[in-house]
Specification:
Layout lengths: L35 E7 L13 E7 L6 E6 L3 E6 L4 E5 L21 E3 L5 E6 L3 E6 L4 E5 L1 E3 L2 E4 L6 E8 L4 E6 L3 E6 L4 E5 L26 H8 L2 E2 L10 E6 L3 E6 L5 E5 L14 E6 L8 E6 L3 E6 L4 E5 L15 E6 L8 E6 L3 E6 L4 E5 L14 E6 L9 E7 L3 E7 L12 H4 L1
Antiparallel strand pairs: 1-2, 1-30, 3-4, 4-5, 5-6, 7-8, 8-9, 9-12, 10-11, 13-14, 14-15, 15-16, 17-18, 18-19, 19-20, 21-22, 22-23, 23-24, 25-26, 26-27, 27-28, 29-30
């Protein structure tokens, strides 16, 4: 029998352990300046917060609030406001719990702002068609409402709809959130992207096309296991060999964008039927894929409607891609669908600091505080005094904006919310009459 070979032990073993990536800073909306909340568009379910007698506004109207507001977000048919103290106010449709507070039996409770009971200070708010999500300063995320897919109501947890805030993701420190119509995206402090909600258009980035239907299977029925696969947050599907970490996230109505840490690379997944996520093939992308078009630029913000996307570069320039109908791209009445990112010429001379997309609308805020809008105007959501569509950016002017510098804008299904600054902000004595809004 040959002698056994002695095991050679390295004097200085080489460790294969990788150091954990950590995010030091993530850009969130600045919350140091409080402003007035102005609204326009449809208000039939209370999403304007102007009371039950106001069903539509075609010009920006001031919401009567006593609190100091530092951020706003428009859901499908509801509105979310963040106060300087880190509390949340909501108003609008509460049929599926999107307001996060009890409104049954309370007269006009959905038509006026009311507070949501939360266990800490909020630093970011987002909303979708029928849900609201908030990020607390300690990294916890609370949500309420529901997700929907082609089969109807999905619920938000195994209990179904959540009508009060509940912690949706645990054992994670989240540094930023983003909401699509029916999905939520989470970025944790290790640069990982997690998702939950509807995955039918690929917006979760972790389920295949075949398994994206919650009724997929032999029986064609929904099981608890099937539902929880979508409702429970989980990491997106990435090849481990890529060793990717991310430092920013954004969401469109049916899609998601994630920026690779310390690089300009943008990974995308979701609906792409009009090239709105910057891929060549006109089909939904279910697994994260690098978009060469989006990776050409340095983005400060990306936002998307149903079939179009806007991008804001760090230099303040706005680009559009996707479907042309109703003028949502802002590229002119004779433009075609944009199959690659195209600069919005009407804003070329402005430095833009904030952008927003509604379902078929687009908005931009300049560094001087001017607000521009374009796209579908059927419910007055462009704030131009009529219901005409607009094919190029046009400055939105009204008496309510005369002495106010716009800081931020957000657009939902058929309404738009503005945060504007003035010395008087929400003071009751400064509220102009309805006649002056016209």
């Amino acid at each position: 029998m040959p002698p056994k070979r002695k095991q050679v032990v390295n004097a200085e073993p080489t460790s294969t352990k990788r150091f954990k990536f950590t995010l030091d800073h993530v850009e969130l909306p600045q919350l140091s300046t409080d402003g007035a909340v102005l609204v326009m568009g449809a208000g039939d379910v209370g999403q304007l917060g102007l009371g039950p007698d106001v069903l539509e506004k075609s010009r920006p109207a001031l919401v009567n609030l006593n609190e100091q507001i530092v951020d706003i977000y428009a859901g499908g048919m509801h509105t979310v406001c963040l106060t300087k103290e880190g509390t949340v106010l909501t108003f609008g449709c509460n049929d599926e719990g999107a307001l996060g507070r009890v409104t049954d039996g309370k007269e006009d409770a959905e038509f006026t702002a009311g507070p949501v009971d939360l266990p800490g200070k909020v630093i970011q708010v987002t909303a979708g068609d029928s849900h609201t999500a908030v990020l607390l300063e300690d990294g916890r995320v609370f949500t309420w409402g529901t997700f929907r897919d082609s089969h109807g109501n999905m619920g938000m947890s195994e209990r179904g709809n959540e009508r009060a805030p509940f912690e949706i993701i645990t054992n994670q420190k989240i540094v930023k959130i983003a909401s699509g119509a029916d999905h939520i995206v989470f970025l944790n402090n290790f640069g990982e992207v997690w998702t939950c909600g509807c995955g039918e258009q690929g917006q979760l980035g972790r389920v295949t096309k075949r398994s994206s239907d919650r009724k997929a299977g032999r029986t064609g029925t929904v099981s608890n296991h099937n539902i929880l696969k979508f409702l429970t947050p989980a990491p997106i599907n990435l090849k481990p060999s890529l060793r990717l970490h991310f430092d920013n996230i954004w969401a469109g109505v049916y899609c998601t964008f994630a920026k690779v840490a310390n690089r300009d690379d943008i990974y995308v997944f979701g609906l792409n039927n009009f090239h709105q996520i910057g891929l060549d093939v006109l089909q939904a992308e279910y697994i994260p894929k690098k978009s060469k078009d989006f990776s050409k630029y340095k983005w400060a913000q990306i936002t998307g409607g149903q079939h179009h996307t806007l991008g804001l570069t760090t230099e303040g320039k706005v680009y559009a891609i996707g479907r042309k109908e109703y003028g949502r791209l802002g590229l002119g009445a004779n433009s075609e669908d944009a199959i690659t990112l195209t600069q919005v010429e009407g804003l070329k001379e402005e430095k833009i600091v904030n952008i927003a997309c509604g379902s078929s609308t687009s908005f931009a805020v300049s560094s001087s505080g001017s607000l521009y809008g374009w796209g579908m105007g059927s419910n007055g959501q462009l704030g131009l005094g009529d219901d005409d569509d607009c094919f190029e950016p046009i400055q939105i002017k009204s008496k309510q904006l005369t002495d106010r510098k716009v800081m931020r804008v957000s657009s939902g299904g058929q309404h738009t919310v503005i945060l504007g600054f003035s010395e008087n902000n929400n003071k009751n004595g400064e509220i102009k009459t309805n006649d002056e809004d016209k």
